[in-house]
User: Which sequence fits this backbone?
């Protein structure tokens, strides 16, 4: 077997086509599983959707009942010699089939809110993004400088890190009640939960990244006449910038995971409000759609940031060939395509 | 093959004259009674013990010794990256303290700033000194020219080979117009061919600018080929064993590797660095693992 077609070589790169295939598969497999459960009647389907209620008094057409209940009632009808109810296998209401969820991705945006004054879906999403933005930005404004200081100077490392190590074990949601008491019930406590969830990890991660900068670069700068401030601003900061950027990308993902708990603090808002509201109405395809949207927004932001990063730090990939990830390659080919489209329309 | 080698102490007229002239030059670097102890958990370890030597202006001096002899410690003290426990170092008669662009340093592991292009790397020292604009840019270009990398001035370090990186590092250190260039096994990570090129290249640079070079290496040929004098250290503790005046005439060329005085010097270095008793104890007791009767020797 040639090395190129070897799928299971330990710590060996796959060929680009192999990795593209697997990337597709990693999304396709769960979707296929979901399709199978939804569309193949003999897989799972623990419920029965009533099509004709027959003589069962409490059955309603279109309603779901458990299989054994349906069977029991029909047995009773059989004994009594009455008309049997008719039904087809169905999944519980909380598992809508893929096509309904896909449709909800679109109709979620076009459906008017039920009550006046309630936000549209896009407004909810925007509100969530705003919470993340402020929580993450505030955390970074303080966390990045502290992290760099702790990574550079043992003084600050010893001063900050022990307490932060302790504090980061405290779950951010635990501060919800306090945050409401101090900051009220609107956005401020939500931002503060994101802040608490991000900040302490951020200082430690960035301190670690900073301390990993090759010390010989700093020594070289010293022998070239750099003073203390220059070593920080001209060597340490540019030296860690690409890794700092990567850290922030990862931490931003972290911030998103605190979103839902943050948004139930005080008055429920944003995408969390939308999800809970739709669950109350039992429109579960909207619930799934909203959850997936969080995932898509997260993934898209990460890809965009990765793409920007490749351009911000050209020295990082000056000799890099095919190591670029499949997703980012897909993304850059999409942007290339879009650019060619816009230039075409512009010229025509 | 047994030929009578001259003593490494015999110097031809021309070489002798050269050394007489060299020693008449002013003393650039004066290392006096240098001690360095490291405190470890098991107690204190002496890395350097009463190291004394002088380097004259425009001299090429090498430091050689077995591993653990403190040659890296020595050069780091000279660069100001570490403080000695005792003794002092004078540069042009002034005691040194801390790192300073007067003492340029080239490290073994390149240490180029990966986010700066070749040109920007060379400009670094000039920027630190407060220079800016086209003036220092054209100055940097001259140094890049000197090391023969004008074509690569806009390349990033990770696009360069090891030898090219080290040339940039040399240009970067020289751009500060140092009094002395300290080189810590600069060619240690290069392959044999590149290393040979870099050695001749370095001799060219040394000849063309007013610079004193202190060069650390563990390669005996390299030390003899490049240096005027070789400082031989011994390990545990690091002490000066001998200062050898290399009897090979200048200008140097690779053909001289086979000259009797070259070989005599190399033999002497071998004696000092790998004494006989060491060699014998290193002899391996190898058990024959094959019963095939073919004799491969």
Assistant:
């Amino acid at each position: 077997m040639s090395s190129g077609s070897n799928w299971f070589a330990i710590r060996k790169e796959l060929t680009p086509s192999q990795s593209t295939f697997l990337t597709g598969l990693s999304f396709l497999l769960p979707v296929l599983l979901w399709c199978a459960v939804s569309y193949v009647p003999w897989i799972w389907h623990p419920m029965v959707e009533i099509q004709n209620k027959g003589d069962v008094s409490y059955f309603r057409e279109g309603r779901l009942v458990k299989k054994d209940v349906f069977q029991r009632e029909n047995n009773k009808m059989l004994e009594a010699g009455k008309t049997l109810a008719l039904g087809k296998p169905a999944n519980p209401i909380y598992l809508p089939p893929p096509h309904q969820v896909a449709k909800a991705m679109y109709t979620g945006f076009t459906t008017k809110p039920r009550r006046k004054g309630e936000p549209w879906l896009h407004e909810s999403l925007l509100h969530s993004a705003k919470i993340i933005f402020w929580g993450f930005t505030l955390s970074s404004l303080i966390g990045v400088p502290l992290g760099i200081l702790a990574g550079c100077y043992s003084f600050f490392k010893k001063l900050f890190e022990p307490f932060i190590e302790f504090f980061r074990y405290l779950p951010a949601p635990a501060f919800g009640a306090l945050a409401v008491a101090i900051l009220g019930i609107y956005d401020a406590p939500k931002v503060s939960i994101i802040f608490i969830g991000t900040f302490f990890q951020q200082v430690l991660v960035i301190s670690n990244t900073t301390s990993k900068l090759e010390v010989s670069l700093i020594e070289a700068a010293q022998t070239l006449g750099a003073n203390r401030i220059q070593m920080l601003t001209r060597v340490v900061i540019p030296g860690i910038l690409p890794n700092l950027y990567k850290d922030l990308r990862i931490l931003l993902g972290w911030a998103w995971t605190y979103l839902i708990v943050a948004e139930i603090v005080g008055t429920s808002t944003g995408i969390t409000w939308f999800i809970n509201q739709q669950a109350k109405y039992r429109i579960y395809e909207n619930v799934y759609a909203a959850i997936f949207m969080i995932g898509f927004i997260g993934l898209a932001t990460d890809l965009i940031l990765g793409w920007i990063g490749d351009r911000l730090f050209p020295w990082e990939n000056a000799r890099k060939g095919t190591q670029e990830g499949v997703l980012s390659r897909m993304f850059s080919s999409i942007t290339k395509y879009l650019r060619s489209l816009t230039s075409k329309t512009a010229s025509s | 093959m047994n030929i009578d080698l001259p003593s490494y102490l015999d110097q031809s007229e021309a070489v002798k004259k050269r050394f007489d002239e060299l020693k008449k030059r002013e003393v650039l670097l004066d290392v006096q009674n240098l001690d360095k102890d490291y405190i470890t958990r098991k107690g204190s370890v002496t890395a350097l013990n009463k190291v004394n030597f002088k380097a004259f202006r425009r001299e090429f001096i090498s430091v050689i010794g077995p591993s653990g002899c403190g040659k890296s410690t020595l050069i780091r003290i000279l660069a100001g990256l570490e403080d000695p426990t005792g003794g002092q170092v004078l540069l042009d008669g002034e005691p040194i303290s801390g790192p300073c662009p007067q003492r340029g340093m080239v490290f073994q592991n390149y240490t180029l700033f990966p986010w700066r292009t070749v040109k920007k790397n060379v400009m670094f020292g000039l920027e630190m000194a407060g220079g800016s604009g086209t003036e220092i840019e054209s100055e940097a270009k001259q140094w890049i020219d000197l090391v023969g990398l004008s074509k690569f001035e806009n390349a990033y370090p990770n696009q360069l080979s090891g030898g090219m990186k080290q040339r940039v590092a040399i240009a970067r250190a020289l751009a500060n117009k140092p009094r002395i260039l300290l080189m810590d096994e600069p060619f240690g990570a290069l392959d044999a061919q590149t290393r040979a090129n870099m050695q001749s290249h370095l001799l060219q640079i040394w000849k063309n600018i007013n610079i004193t070079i202190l060069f650390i290496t563990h390669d005996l040929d390299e030390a003899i080929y490049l240096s005027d004098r070789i400082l031989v250290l011994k390990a545990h503790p690091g002490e000066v064993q001998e200062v050898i005046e290399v009897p090979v005439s200048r200008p140097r060329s690779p053909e001289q590797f086979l000259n009797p005085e070259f070989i005599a010097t190399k033999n002497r270095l071998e004696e000092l660095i790998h004494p006989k008793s060491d060699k014998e104890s290193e002899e391996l007791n190898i058990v024959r693992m094959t019963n095939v009767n073919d004799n491969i020797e």
